[in-house]
Amino acid sequence: MPSGLDAREASAGPEPLSTHEVFNQPPPFEDVDLFALDAPLGETVKANGAGAAAAELAAFGRSWGTAAMFERGRLANRHAPELATFDARGFRRDTVEFHPAYHDLMTASMAASLHNATWTKEGARAPAPAEVVRAAKFYMAAQVETGHLCPITMTRAAVAALGAEPAVLGALMPKLSSTTYDPAFWPIGAKRSITLGMGMTEKQGGTDVRANTTAARRDGAAYRITGHKWFMSAPMCDAFLVLAQAGAGLTCFLMPRFAPDGSVNGLRFQRLKDKLGNRSNASAEVEFAEAYALRVGEEGRGVRTIIEMVQLTRLDCAIASAGLMRMALAQALHHARHRSVFQKRLSDHPLMRAVLADLALTAEGAVAVVMRLARAFDHAAADRGEAARMRLLTPAIKCWVCKGAPAFAYEAMECMGGNGYVEDSLMARLYREAPVNAIWEGSGNVMCLDVLRAMMKDADAAQALLRELTGEAHGLPGVEAAAARLAGLLRRPDAEAVSRLAVEHLALIAVAAALNGISPASAELFARTRLAGPRGASFGAQDVEAAGVELLLTRALPSF
Ligand SMILES: Cc1cc2nc3c(=O)[nH]c(=O)nc-3n(C[C@H](O)[C@H](O)[C@H](O)COP(=O)(O)OP(=O)(O)OC[C@H]3O[C@@H](n4cnc5c(N)ncnc54)[C@H](O)[C@@H]3O)c2cc1C
């Protein structure tokens, strides 16, 4: 009898059930080291210049992999935030109440500087490898709970847009530099630290923000803003970057929750969205009633100003989706290694191994490519090639990683059978969480059009990047042909209509290139199955030899 069969991994607790014995149920995947168990993460961190941070990342991985952190993630989503529109006397409150677990997660993320590690205390870019180190932590945090990362990512990204208004940035940096989370609903001056949000999307348009009708009128040195936002997440942030129409056109503003005289500013929360996932995070419909705001950047240059922020949140969407994939994979692998069917571990059945290995290959590619992209952010200011990589690949990689996450989570869920489908397991939450990163911060088509626009605008930089990527992926099957196909698609008069195909080629080449710098054997498998060879529509529908499967599964999760 195979050794696996007599394992009795009961999770029924100390009290035995009177009617039957509970066995063949995997132990929970918790109290784990999220860094040490993830060989592809450790390798890509090293390859991207952050090897010296290994001990710091290991400590982060251990603390976020505890049962207590997973429980906080569960509680924060089980007990969704509630809107308190009025107080007992009928005065407007416009506050949102969160479960204590949400505050714990915010405390932990801010203590680890996920909201500010890439900035100096003055608001300049922190030296490399700050982006890579933070990205590795963000990726691990996303495996445990992603909802609270919304204000975290917006806070770190807002600094880039505030750079257009150095005086405002200078005034806020002491609060943004703090690593002590302060949830109090107080004016900024009275707080130890602050978080920042973003309001662009209105009822009539989210992608097309130029259709914004919210209006700003001058009021001395400041402005008064009247209108609405249809989605404004993390509404308990201390201030928001919002877009509104001023005299010279769409303009970016900083709108604090309190006016300078200490009164509550005119932000009226109408209701909170009842969302598919992302439940720990509140997303408000809000009206602005003559709300006080400061201009950020010139009038009429609102999109240009706020795009500095969006570039960073797009990177975080991709990192978080890679993290979701990683946790879905770890759960599936862990389950398959502890669950027996037909007298064999699930993980010993060839077809299940094919599915798991294919998931592992995608997850390994995702973490490799997002960390390589984070390195481009680290070096973009001083290196034109890295700047072009950042500009061209951020939308392509956001598109590929984020759009792949829902199908990935679904397949990983299926690996766990019925256990994966119920709320007690983390999988249901991961699955619900997966689609949002593809929708916000620019949906799939918008990302494709953005890649196209950037490639057309600077064709030389685009060609140089393609040469660089194909050089990095040199010798891998299908890469040259994919690059030629991509170039052909971009030259077509209907390039817009075929831009999904073009962007997919670009992203796959970038993934193969990133993998090749870490694990050539994984890169070869990726290129062979994604670029060169035929592959079916579902995970596992490919032809990979047993040695390749073994390699991928061992790298993905060592036995522990
Ligand atoms: C949970 C959640 C939280 C959010 N939080 C915030 C927030 O804090 N702040 C904020 O400002 N917004 C927020 N949003 C809004 C989000 O950014 C928008 O929903 C998103 O940008 C899409 O805009 P839209 O909903 O108006 O869709 P639309 O702009 O109507 O787009 C619909 C579809 O059309 C596609 N499309 C658009 N243009 C083209 C084109 N030219 N060619 C082909 N296809 C196209 C898009 O890709 C998309 O798939 C949030 C959304 C969600 C779901």
**CATH first level of the largest domain:** Mainly Alpha
- At CATH's second level, what is the architecture of the largest domain? Up-down Bundle
**Main structural class:** alpha+beta
On the 0-100 scale, what is the average pLDDT? Answer: 96
Fold blueprint:
Blueprint: H1 39-50, H2 54-64, H3 67-78, E1 82-86, E2 92-97, H4 100-111, H5 130-144, H6 149-162, H7 166-176, E3 196-199, E4 215-219, E5 222-233, E6 239-246, E7 249-256, E8 267-272, E9 283-296, H8 302-338, E10 340-341, E11 344-345, H9 350-379, H10 384-415, H11 426-433, H12 436-439, H13 444-457, H14 459-472, H15 479-491, H16 499-516, H17 520-532, H18 546-556
Parallel strand pairs: 3-6
Antiparallel strand pairs: 1-2, 4-5, 5-9, 6-7, 7-9, 8-9, 10-11
Helix pairs in contact: 1-5, 1-9, 2-5, 3-4, 5-8, 5-9, 6-7, 6-8, 8-9, 8-10, 8-11, 9-10, 9-16, 9-17, 9-18, 10-11, 10-13, 10-14, 10-16, 13-14, 13-16, 14-16, 15-16, 16-17
Flavin-adenine dinucleotide (FAD) binds at residues 197-201, 205-208, 231-233, 275, 278, 283, 436, 439-440, 443-446, 449.
